[in-house]
Amino acid sequence: MSTRLRTAAPATAAPDAPAPATARPHAAPRHAVAPDTAPLETALWEAAFAGDEYTATGLVRQALDEGHDPESMLLDVIARVQVKVGEEWAANRMSIAQEHAATAINERAVAALSLHPAARTVPDRGRITVACVDGEWHALPARLLSEVLRLRGWHVDYLGAQVPVPHLIGHLHRTGPQLVALSGSIATRLPAAHATITACQAAGVPVVAGGAAFGAGGRYARLLGADAWAADARSAADRIQSSPPARPDSGHQPLDDLPHLDDQEYTMVTRTRTTLVRSVMRGLDEAFPAVRQYDDLQRERTAEDLAHIVDFLATALYLDDPELFTDFIAWTASILTARGVPVHSLPPALHILAAELKDFPRAQRTLHLGTDRLGAASPVPFAPARNHP
Q: What percent of the chain has pLDDT over 70?
């Protein structure tokens, strides 16, 4: 249920290559022109919503021709439009297809900006690798950071979405960057993010983590041992520029961060994911006669939702943070409500899952807290979770 968008990095000059004649030094004043960006944001949103790529890219080129700052265009216009895309999808005012199309248009808008003469700079600060966590398809945040770093004079290797750890480490050994900027939007990929952080540090390269997956205030980035965290592309670029993290010690191990994993609850829930989903489906068949009347597509969608519940439970166990799970359950209720889908089957599903995991105390506690959250609070507003574009 992710956006599953792939993006490719534009060609970048080597750090020691002569700059094009039209390139500007990274020290050139930023925000030379600072007009109100709201009209541009509105116009780009309308083009993205309509699926009008030519209007969208034309708006970006014209704004840069008129002197708008490229970094502001990236972060105060394109990024804000993408946030609205996610909000409109969550509110059921955009279909998944429309959301994918709008995201692709925003990607094209970023590409148009990167090729404009106003965005050409001299890459003389050093080298940075920007990548998404393995299994993470939401590449636009990483792409935005890459372009901001390029504007500020860094040589950037943008590796795009879903980068497997062995391939990332091989790249680090070949290129020797100063740091890795690691992006993650889907919380269920945090175990993979942990493995990535540890592997990069073992290779002697520090990691700056960013993205919604790492939690409010970056609490999961700290828990998983990242060398630094940033809330957004602008603050990430500021942090990297002002005080880049030092090279880490190589002896760090994942269990050093999360000693509770010794109880094996995360491992067992992950290994039995398919069995758990099937057991809950059988239990719902017995508890709700209406479920027996579902057609194949409805049963498939229900199984997908249950699989997401198990995935978030497993991630909460990995982090030893029940709040991650309870927030997801409340958010799921809000998404179902926006689509006119009854949420009355959620508490029984959690009860059935708890019965299947009766020998796992942390899982039991987390599931009971999820049930309490459904009864004690109204659905929460849209928050980054399983489908945030």
A: 86
Going from the C-alpha of 297 to that of each of 100, 181, 293, 300, 303, the distances in angstroms are 21, 39, 11, 5, 10
The per-residue pLDDT for range 222-276, each reduced to its tens digit, is 999 999 999 999 999 999 999 989 888 766 666 677 888 889 999 999 999 999 9
Distance (Å, whole) CA 108 – CA 220: 31
Express each pLDDT in 61-91 by its tens digit: 999 999 999 999 999 999 999 999 999 998 9
What's the whole-model pTM score?
0.83
Q: How far apart are the C-alpha atoms of 23 and 115, rounded to whole Å?
A: 11
Name the residue type at position 248. Answer: P
- Helices in the chain by DSSP H: which ranges? 38-50, 53-65, 70-72, 79-90, 96-114, 140-151, 165-175, 190-202, 219-223, 233-242, 254-257, 265-271, 273-287, 289-292, 296-319, 322-338, 346-356, 361-376
The residue ranking higher by pLDDT, 258 or 24, is 258
Give the three-state DSSP class for 366. helix
Q: What angle do CA 297, 303, 306 make, to 5 degrees?
A: 145
**What are the C-alpha distances in Å from 369 to residues 213, 276, 317, 363?**
21, 19, 13, 10
Residues 297 and 50: their CA atoms lie apart, in Å, by: 29
Q: Residue 149 in contact with residue 277, Cβ under 8 Å?
A: no
Q: Please tell me whether residue 158 adopts helix, strand or coil conformation.
A: strand
